[in-house]
Amino acid sequence: MAAGLNIYRDLKKEYFWDVNIEKLDIDSARRLIIERVFSLGSIKEMMLVIDYYGEDEVKKVLTGLNYMDRKTFNFVSKFFDIPKNSFKCYSRMHLHPKSWD
Prior knowledge:
The protein is mainly alpha-helical. Helices cover 53% and strands 0% of the residues.
């Protein structure tokens, strides 16, 4: 993990509306931080998160998520060049298809 990411300064507080950001431990809350930044953040913020946690850890977290919205899912798959069937959420999407898809 690289030093330098300061969630209080570098990431928008709005991403963490449901937690007290001042008490958020950046290391133990990695799943929350990675998920929110890749769902809501900018490319710059995503790169900060990758620089801090490392690309392998970010990929591990993202591929292990139970849910990811389709837009984020498609972006992450292309961004990291990860096959869609490598994501946990991919198999769950097919278990619970929406009637309007």
